[in-house]
Amino acid sequence: MIITAVNVQIFSYPTRRAVDSAGHAHPGDVTQASMALLRIKTECGNEGYALGAPELIRPYVLDGFVRKVLVGANAFDREKIWHDLAHWQRGSASQLTDRALALVEQALWDWAGRKLNVPVHKLIGGYRDKVPAYGSTMCGDELPGGLSTPEEYGRFAETLVKRGYKAIKLHTWMPPVSFAPSVAMDIKACAAVREAVGPDIALMIDGYHWYSRTDALTIGRALEKLDFAWFEEPMMEDSAESYAWLAGQLDIPILGPESLGGKHLSRASWVKNDVCDILRAGVAGVGGIAPCLKVAHMAEAFGMDCEIHGNGAANLAVVGAIKNCTWYERGLLHPFLNYDEVPAYLKRLVDPMDEDGFVHLSDLPGLGEDIDFNYVETNTQHSY
Amino acid sequence: MIITAVNVQIFSYPTRRAVDSAGHAHPGDVTQASMALLRIKTECGNEGYALGAPELIRPYVLDGFVRKVLVGANAFDREKIWHDLAHWQRGSASQLTDRALALVEQALWDWAGRKLNVPVHKLIGGYRDKVPAYGSTMCGDELPGGLSTPEEYGRFAETLVKRGYKAIKLHTWMPPVSFAPSVAMDIKACAAVREAVGPDIALMIDGYHWYSRTDALTIGRALEKLDFAWFEEPMMEDSAESYAWLAGQLDIPILGPESLGGKHLSRASWVKNDVCDILRAGVAGVGGIAPCLKVAHMAEAFGMDCEIHGNGAANLAVVGAIKNCTWYERGLLHPFLNYDEVPAYLKRLVDPMDEDGFVHLSDLPGLGEDIDFNYVETNTQHSY
Q: Rounded to whole angstroms, how far apart are CA atoms B63 and B41?
């Protein structure tokens, strides 16, 4: 099954996500955003797709690396293609990023699933057909009625529980929010949410990522009293020593690393050195579904859980095929937005959640993205 | 794809492999041996197969564990089925062995490959279409003209190189051979083989498994002088400390663990504690293709190679789908036997080797075992 073409369509779609001066998503007015549809085609006419940010897969990335490795290769040779692309990254990682690598690999999985008429999670080897989701909030803001006070977090948490969520993860305030970062406000928001939802909802926090060791310890102790399920990325992940210091003192599980580079190899170092209690990896962050599975399986070999970072079809496929993960991350969520609204370029949600808080794995062949190709065609800005 | 039936046929086939009083295979007269064909059937009528020793999958294993977990399950849910069976092993591992677990899991992979019309190595994600093999000799013996002297090892090595092998692994003498174990004889055999094949053939040794630390060190130093590629299992693998002691002193890579239980979890301990230089796992030994992949991928995350133990279609499928493995183990070989002869119950070899020493991965759907079902039917002794 030789790959004959790899193409990209950049199309526009309406969004209500706005990005602040530090890169965090918040609700905003409806604007037009751009999305890339990566399309891999084989000699038999079958195609595989992946959706991602246009900047990941600019023409120089597609021509400089992706087409060179993929065109002429067997689309089933995912492991070979992945390693060949990963080798290209030496010296070129600023162009061919791990996220670009993940996008390409994702499209190869999607191709295989569509070609074989099987969902990707079953291709990997299924573990489950549904998974409980945690509602993952947007970062705090200064929008009245939004996520601007601990009380607003509490009220939003109540609506999430009504929607069915059995777990909630707070992203708290970060600069440029005027009062951020604030240890005291983070703790207050966590306390307000615990108060609002009672003892039976699992809670986690993912706040400011540049706290000092001692601030992180202060928050961690407060979270222990509030019976939080995990404490995520309070410090720069480049300092494994800081995480080992923190994890060594706290009972609350420390989760990581999420944004650290180094794919499955850096996670191996964290595991070896007892840097965290629960491992973390997401498909985009570690360069694909296969390396994400490698991280999760390594965690299993060490008796650790591995919670998968991020929403979307590819992460959900991984969650569906591993045992040592409790939750699917659904979001980001905000009082002003409706996550259950289907994006314009899809015909249905990739992660529909029932009223008991379970997300159901897709039965569709491939990754489970039911792409509205008519919409994409109609709204294509340019192709290459 | 619900599993509706799991059945076993025990059939006889002629073999020239005889087993000595300590369980090692040697050439012998033609006798009839028994083999189990495990057959998993789904509602759509598709079947998956695995071949193995009858004692792995006796009726009480099939009824007590396998059918309970499999019948009614989705055949694509390999990860779920594997964990459910593995949980049964607590307290029952003497009945439901890791090898039995592997047999069942292998049949599920074969089912998926046959169902989807794809070789299993491509289903996993292919890395290569051919792999160099090492000729893996039988253990030494006292058969004149066989493997009874260092010189005979040397002569046999020459014929293996003529056949195309670019690497040879010696299994040396073990009790009940009268003069075994013998550090001196092991070293002499290694020296004779190096002398016979010259400097450009890769050589490895897998000898007596119960040497003392100091005997192992003596052999290791001799192997370093003979430029051997690895040193395999010279001591009991239950003593990880002994391996760490040995690996810490020798430059020649120490390979392991092979026969140690504990699946991917025990390998994690070896990796964490720098017990070996090259990791080892085989499909049967670690309970299946998936755990074998988990070991290999963990090794990759730690920058280590993982050489796959044993011949056969399932191990070859793993080798075909991973990068960090140099060789396929082809054998066991002996001057009196012809490994290239197709077993009576197959229509072709699972691991055909060309004259350059490369084994070619199968294009057949499933694991690549071209089973002669007529032969199996005709020679079935009993079924359950």
A: 16
